[in-house]
């Protein structure tokens, strides 16, 4: 039984890793070999031409796109954690009229397809003169309904006795939240920050609508222009995909333990 389980896990691992491995190997192929049919697995003449072209071509400032995406995703993740933590704590611990209704409305927004909000958000961003700026992809998604739901579930798991002890020692609501609740919620906060970062990092549609200048583009939107301009340069496309996947893989390795702990303690495990 154990051997069967290990075999199944090995097959699943191979299925998930194979596209990443092919992407990485293709990025080191020549232009001719990358477009060959049927494709080859290993590069016959490994080369760095694709990376040299991407990093040095004036029409594809990939490093600038990378920096824009990194800044926007990091800033958005911090805003999501800040707003969600405050709202979730209020909904989990504070008593006020209509609390359940407010929480229900927040959860209901999770069922609204994000594409429906593109036009209203575009109008708001335009009236605030945020078009073609990174603020347009940082602020609009800072109020995250899933983040509120996720952290509320986690806060409900924390023992109230800790907060009551803090109140008896003279701490007010804010001090209890800042010094007691947040330190105990690091796994959940790290998990939410990672999810928010990945969502913003991988976003393609919204940056295409609100960012116009090449120097303001994010990596995902910039890679789309690379694809349209070089539709048969699969080596360039794979090299760009490798660059885009590096922060995701690094974050996953660093935050894997926090993600598992945060999800298991928030009541969202399957």
What do you see in this structure?
The chain has 270 residues and is mainly α. It has a single domain, classed as MetI-like fold. Helix content is 71%, strand content 0%. Helix 4 packs antiparallel against helix 13 and helix 13 runs antiparallel to helix 14. The longest helix has 32 residues. The model has no long low-confidence stretch (mean pLDDT 86).
Topology of helices and strands:
Layout: H1 2-26, H2 31-34, H3 49-56, H4 62-93, H5 99-108, H6 118-127, H7 135-138, H8 145-157, H9 160-168, H10 173-184, H11 186-202, H12 205-210, H13 219-229, H14 234-265
Query: CATH superfamily name?
Result: MetI-like
Main β sheet profile:
none
What CATH architecture label applies? Orthogonal Bundle
Order of helices and strands: HHHHHHHHHHHHHH
What would you call the structural class? mainly alpha
Backbone CA Rg: 23 Å
N- and C-termini, Cα separation: 23 Å
- The tally of helices reads 14
Counted beta strands: 0
Strand content: under 5%
Q: Could you name the CATH class? A: Mainly Alpha
Q: State the shape.
A: globular
**Helix content class:** over 70%
Q: Ranges with pLDDT <50 over ≥5 residues? A: none
**The number of domains:** 1
Query: Could you tell me the mean pLDDT?
Result: 86
CATH topology: MetI-like fold
Task: Compose a concise summary of this entry.
This protein is mainly alpha-helical and 270 residues long. It contains 14 helices and no strands.
Name the features.
270 residues; mainly alpha; MetI-like fold; 14 helices; 71% helix
């Amino acid at each position: 039984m154990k051997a069967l389980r290990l075999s199944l896990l090995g097959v699943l691992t191979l299925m998930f890793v194979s596209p990443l491995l092919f992407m990485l190997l293709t990025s080191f192929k020549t232009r001719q070999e990358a477009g060959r049919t049927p494709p080859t697995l290993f590069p016959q003449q490994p080369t760095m031409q694709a990376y040299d072209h991407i990093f040095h071509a004036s029409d594809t400032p990939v490093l600038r796109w990378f920096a824009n995406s990194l800044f926007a995703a990091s800033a958005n993740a911090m805003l999501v954690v800040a707003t969600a933590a405050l709202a979730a704590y209020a909904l989990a611990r504070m008593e006020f009229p209509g609390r359940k209704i407010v929480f229900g409305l927040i959860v209901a927004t999770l069922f609204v397809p994000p594409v429906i909000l593109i036009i209203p958000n575009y109008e708001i961003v335009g009236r605030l003169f945020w078009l073609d700026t990174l603020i347009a992809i940082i602020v609009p998604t800072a109020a995250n309904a899933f983040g509120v739901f996720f952290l509320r579930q986690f806060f409900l798991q924390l023992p109230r006795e800790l907060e009551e002890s803090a109140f008896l020692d003279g701490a007010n609501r804010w001090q209890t939240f800042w010094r007691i609740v947040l330190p105990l919620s690091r796994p959940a906060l790290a998990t939410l920050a990672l999810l928010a970062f990945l969502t913003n990092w991988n976003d393609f549609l919204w940056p295409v609508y609100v960012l116009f200048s090449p120097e303001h583009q994010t990596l995902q939107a910039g890679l789309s222009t690379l694809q349209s301009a070089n539709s048969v340069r699969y080596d360039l496309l794979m090299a760009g995909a490798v660059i885009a996947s590096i922060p995701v893989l690094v974050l996953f390795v660093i935050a894997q333990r926090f993600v598992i702990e945060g999800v298991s303690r928030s009541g969202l495990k399957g």
